[in-house]
Amino acid sequence: MASLFEPGFIGPLKLKNRMIRSATWEGMCGPDGRPTQKLTDHYADLVKGGIGLIISGYTYVRPDGKQLPGKMGIYTDAFAEDFKRLTGTVHDLGGKIACQLVHAGGQADLKAAGRKPVAPSAVKAAAFPEIPQALTILEIEDITDAFAGAAGRAKEWGFDGVQIHGAHGYLVSQFLSPLTNQRTDEYGGSLENRARFLFDVYEKIRARVGKNYPVFIKFNGEDHLENGLNREDALDVARQISLAGMDAVEVSSGNAASGEKSPARTKIDAPKKRPITSPLPRA
Ligand SMILES: Cc1cc2nc3c(=O)[nH]c(=O)nc-3n(C[C@H](O)[C@H](O)[C@H](O)COP(=O)(O)O)c2cc1C
Questions:
Q1: For ligand 1, is residue 58 a contact (CB within 6 Å)?
Q2: pLDDT score at 283
Q3: What is the mean pLDDT of residues 246-273?
């Protein structure tokens, strides 16, 4: 069996080792989502610490898909130089970085997103305050185009791949879940219909970036919610993902309403509060 420290491949992407930093919102970007030097320094520290592949914090593909403050945004060409500096720094240090693409859907923040959140259906996401507006078919097409545009920018600006954020109750995950997707058109009802949004996103991204560019997905193996995405359906979606040609699947689970099974663990101490110092040397 290969060791953690041996080089590995994910699809066409060669990694110096098998340590991958799962996407983690850092909150270090400007109010408009522009990456900062602070975030670049943070990624540099991760590479110096030995990480083979960084997956960026969730990055919104359209301003109305924003949730937490300081989140990264990849919806405009105006950020080209900042993004190139960020990916260039990671590469100069021998690291690799993929960009996690998201639209927060019904979990978007009203103030941050600048409008009432949008979702598959006008069903409130548990643990979030707003009743979202149900998307029309034309609006769905606009959002899938925005994912493709964002992936195109990510490729052009030096990211080594993109990861579709299909987990944790954000828009892709909302379409998959019967709890938040109560549509009666071709995007709702059967599993095939609920998964249509995800595969539209993927196909448009693939058409934009070409067949040799790494495209991953993170999605829920289970929502841990009554009437949410269950394990059997998730397994079916995973099979379809593999057949569709995505390069890797990261399986997570839960969303903000899933209590102890929610994806963000709490009560983790900040480094300065930890009793022992990090054993990793800082370059
Ligand atoms: C502060 C914090 C920020 C996070 N930000 C993201 C994010 O931007 N994207 C994402 O997919 N997951 C995010 N997560 C979830 C983790 O990447 C991971 O999925 C979670 O810790 C559960 O692990 P599991 O996916 O192996 O079950 C975040 C978690 C924490 C604690």
A1: yes
A2: 44
A3: 86
Read off the pLDDT of residues 58-93 as tens digits, 9 standing for 90 and up. 999 999 999 999 999 999 999 999 999 999 999 999
Which domains can be identified in the chain, with CATH numbers? 16-251 (3.20.20.70)
Does the pTM exceed 0.90?
A: yes
User: What does the pLDDT read at residue 112?
Assistant: 81
CA-proximal residue: ligand 1, atom 26 (nearest): 252
Residues involved in catalysis: 170
Ligand 1: centre distance to CA 273 (Å): 21
Q: How far is the CA of 59 from the centre of ligand 1 (A)?
A: 13
**Residue 193 Cβ contacting ligand 1 at under 6 Å:** no
Q: Is the CB of 22 under 6 A from ligand 1?
A: yes
pLDDT tens column, 4-16: 999 999 999 999 9
Q: Is the pLDDT of residue 281 over 70?
A: no
* Confidence at residue 238, expressed as pLDDT on a 0 to 100 scale: 97
Provide the β-strand partners of residue 99: 162
Q: Would you say the CB of residue 253 lies under 6 angstroms from ligand 1?
A: yes
Q: Are 14 and 6 in contact (CB under 8 A)?
A: no
Structure tokens at 160: 């080594």
Supply the residue whose CA is at minimum distance from atom 31 of ligand 1: 264
